[in-house]
Amino acid sequence: MVSVTPALDGAQDADALVEYDYTDSGIKDSRGQVVTNTAGRRGTLLSFQLTRRGDKWLIRQVITVRKGRPA
Q: Residue 64 and residue 6: Cα distance in Å, rounded?
């Protein structure tokens, strides 16, 4: 995770802008065959929209703001 920028939108709503990097990843089956793979990226930016329910913050929606660039 590179950064998290929170912002309250009142007593019950908030947003968190999250920038992160990730490396190559994937899934292999029991025989070692690749099922899925994803190339790493840098500078990915997501917006998490949150709603407060009682004493908990729940994720209402996640929006991709920027897909980042190849790592």
A: 16
